[in-house]
Amino acid sequence: MAGKLMHAVQYNSYGGGAAGLKHVEVPIPAPSKDEVLIKLEAASINPYDCKLQAGVARPILPRKFPFIPVFDVSGEVVEVGSGIKNFKTGDKVVSMLKSMVCLTQFPLRYVKLSGVVFGMHLFKLLNQKALDEKLDPERQTQRIINVIPGGGGLAEFCVAKGNRTVPRPPEVSAAEAAGLPIAALTAHMALTQFAGVKLDGSGPQKNILVTAASGGVGHYAVQLAKLGNTHVTATCGARNMEFVKSLGADEVLDYKTPDGAALRSPSGQKYDAIVHGTTGIPWSTFEPNLSQNGMVIALTPNPSTMMTFAWKKLTCSKKRIVPLLLDAKGENLDYLVKLVKEGKLKTVIDSKYPLSKAEDAWAKSIDGHATGKIIVEP
Ligand SMILES: NC(=O)c1ccc[n+]([C@@H]2O[C@H](COP(=O)([O-])OP(=O)(O)OC[C@H]3O[C@@H](n4cnc5c(N)ncnc54)[C@H](OP(=O)(O)O)[C@@H]3O)[C@@H](O)[C@H]2O)c1
């Protein structure tokens, strides 16, 4: 493919929203040793894509402009790097794209100064990794690098790391597969690693609340939580209540009603874990709804979340709030793809757009009212 051009959508600076996206012809990227080149069939947009453009990780990501956004992709392998043994040309795959930015020598101190996103990385790493696994600072930095995703999905071709790419069976469409990486892996991580839910249903029964249950993460979280034999309460808008029930939720609250705003379970449940995908809910609302050892898993932490997290940790509080930063693992993505194949998990598609209308998909994501996933198809 060397020297050939492809259609891609990129932005040249922070900010600008959908109007900041530009359609361009750029060279098809070449896979390095541990990468595959994928001819894209579908990509999905996540709120994080638009937040990166808005500057949430400024000035670290995107490190360089122009930047081709979007991390979640599915397509066909058309070329493999010399170190790739598990894929060959013609394989259908799904992948979460990793950073193409070299941050290997990036000083941890600089990362510390870079806002909430990296403060969150730091809290997570220092608390859960360095303390539990006794990592040295160099490995902490490496750990940060490993969890920073890259882009390249709004294009006809992209390169993907072999270890973040998994096979896509014929029973799973490209669009269904592309919806999975960030959103379903986040739901999976929140439930299994944070809430301790066993997805084979073998663990103790837990009460779970999923906020924004109609969104990308939420609709996977409800389905996975039900696989884990939990009692699920969910919040969503009035128009999506039947939809969220159809995903398996036991109780559904309209977030615009007083009970919904108070997160109050109709049957009086106290939640062992809250997979929290919205913003603007104070600790004083969560606290009375949590069970004795209940936990809020904050997907969109802000400074107030971090203060409460630190305070609860300092005071050894049993009820707590913890920020989650996705640590995407190929084996978990493989597991989720298999669940879709077996009909145990579904990707609900809000809307599909051709690559030529990528800015409309972008605007839809920024709007924040998707039901399920937003897909772009080259
Ligand atoms: N920490 C991480 O690693 C990580 C990973 C993935 C995602 N996230 C974050 O998690 C959040 C959710 O992501 P997503 O992909 O699920 O977003 P999304 O698909 O854009 O969510 C949209 C849905 O949220 C619903 N919603 C909005 N406000 C709500 C409220 N107050 N109560 C209940 N539902 C509400 C909307 O319903 P209506 O249309 O009815 O309003 C809509 O269906 C985002 O902020 C994202 O950045 C974080």
TrEMBL record:
Superkingdom field: Eukaryota
MF-aspect GO terms: oxidoreductase activity
InterPro entries according to UniProt: ADH-like_N, Chloroplast_QOR, ER, GroES-like_sf, NAD(P)-bd_dom_sf
Coiled-coil ranges per UniProt: none
Classification via Pfam families: ADH_N, ADH_zinc_N_2
Limits of the Enoyl reductase (ER) domain: 16-376
PANTHER family for this protein: ZINC-TYPE ALCOHOL DEHYDROGENASE-LIKE PROTEIN C16A3.02C
Record-given protein name: Enoyl reductase (ER) domain-containing protein
Organism: Rhododendron simsii (Sims's rhododendron)
